[in-house]
Amino acid sequence: MAQKPSIPKGTRDFNPEEVSKRNYIFNTIKKQFEIFGFQPIETPSFENSSTLMGKYGEEGDRLIFKILNSGDFLSKVDDELYTAKDSTKITSRISEKALRYDLTVPFARYVVQHQNEIDFPFKRYQIQPVWRADRPQKGRFREFFQCDADVVGSDSLWQEVEFVQLYDAVFSALDLKGVTIKINNRKILSGIAEVIGAQDKLIDFTVALDKLDKIGEEKVKIEMLGKGIPQSGIDKLQPLFSLKGSFGTQIEELKSILNTSEEGKKGIEELEFINQGIETLGLKTANLQLDVTLARGLNYYTGAIFEVAAPEGVKMGSIGGGGRYDDLTGIFGLKDMSGVGISFGLDRIALVLEDLDLFPETVTNTVNVLFINFGDAEAMVSMKAIKQLRDNGVSAELFPDNKKTIKQFNYANKRNIPFVVLLGESEMHSNTFTLKNMKTGDQESLSFDEMLNALQ
After folding, report:
1. Partner of 310 for a Cys bridge, out of 55, 185, 314, 395, CB 3.0 to 4.6 A?
2. Interacting residues of 363 by C-beta distance below 8 A, sequence separation 6+
């Protein structure tokens, strides 16, 4: 007996309905990307290992899927190396390519490789799958899509203003109201660390601060003390623990806390610029909120940091994020190429839309009308009509087999086809078409032109 087929852990099959819903999100995001002036690029699904390795830290390197060299890949491994069983050293001999881990490093490679062909500032978007050899769990997969937009070659803060607007435009187009765009600035976090005398413990400080909502003020203080941050410094943080209110109110509090830090003051100036721009231009449905505990990508971002939260009442992690980086292409030798970018969490957005029942009813309608098959003579006349409908932009098909009518109707119902055409002997004689609305059950006899108008 043949073994039942399966797919690798951490990957998924998508049925037609799921693909239609995902395409709806893709197309909505893509449309807004292009309205905002971003240009599409694509990069190979696999890169040279040298491009990817060493760019994500030790943990990231471990999660990169390596591709074995073709042919006799063990021929470059000598007996001594083979006997030592050092997987890291062996891998470099037997694998020279790897599946991309994200879209950012390939984008940096693309910019450096094509810098003489690119007009800067370069606004690019990219929607492609990436692969990570992570432990599969709910909401975490080994193969998933990323939807990224970046601008490189400009340090203007108008780009940050535009990205806030872009988030708002996409979620408004998806009818997802009430999302919160959280914003912080790396310079703010560096300034706070400086004020409390913990410049050398910036990561420890921010990791602890990031847990404020989860574990509370006292436990955060205990964790900071455990990381070697002095009590005198923690005392200076007291106003930060109760920082609430509007964007402007929080900014004024930060000015007081960071009055001795030039780096912190610069971060405040940048946040004020972005907020004033958004207040003047306005947002459709999203809210912009300052969150000084936000520290995602701290080793990577150098200015603004973004994270998007789903509407209140929806249990979901972030559905988007990004920030400003000052030296994206430096890893490949092209220095001082500042950029800023954001991404959309496709899978989480899909779950939120599903949870809130926000997918349009028509999103899964791939066929508008099905012609019932009553036999070869009727099928030929049906096919002529179907060809005319398709020429006029109406999706139509013929049930391929002359089966019982009830089975053909059931097929239309299961596929959510909204209309069915009955073209039998009487319709052929009268040169008409009986069009049935599958939702209401109503049916009427129409000429071809009348049927076309009804279906359009």
Report:
1. 314
2. 20, 21, 24
Tokens 């009830």, residue located: 406
Question: Tokens 């769990």 — which residue?
Answer: 137
Q: Are 285 and 170 in contact (CB under 8 A)?
A: no
CA max distance for the chain: 95
Phi and psi (nearest 5°) for 13?
Answer: -90, 145
The sheet carrying 304-309 orders its strands as: 39-40, 122-131, 143-152, 339-344, 320-325, 304-309, 180-185, 287-290
Partners of residue 124 on adjacent β-strands: 39, 150
DSSP 324-369: EES-GGGGGT--S--EEEEEE-HHHHHHHHHHTT-S-GGGG---SE
Measure the CA–CA gap between 433 and 423, rounded to whole angstroms. Answer: 6
Q: 29, 115 in Cβ contact below 8 A?
A: no
In contact, 31 and 173? CB cutoff 8 Å: yes
The residues spanned by each domain of the chain are 16-45+100-355, 366-455
The conformation of residue 86, written as its DSSP 8-state character, comes to: -
Interval 164-199: pLDDT, tens? 999 999 999 999 999 999 999 999 999 998 988 888
Cut 0.70: pTM above it: yes
Q: Is it the case that residue 297 has pLDDT exceeding 70?
A: no
Pick the CATH number of 366-455 from 3.30.1330.10, 3.40.50.800, 3.40.50.150, 3.40.630.10: 3.40.50.800
Fold of 16-45+100-355: BirA Bifunctional Protein; domain 2 (3.30.930)
Under 8 Å between Cβ of 212 and 293: yes
Query: Each residue of 107-143: b (16+ CB within 10 Å) or e?
Result: bbbbbbeebeebeebbbbbbbbebbbeeeeeeeebbe
For residue range 314-356, list pLDDT tens digits in order. 888 899 999 999 888 988 989 989 999 999 999 999 999 999 9
CA 7 to chain centre: 23
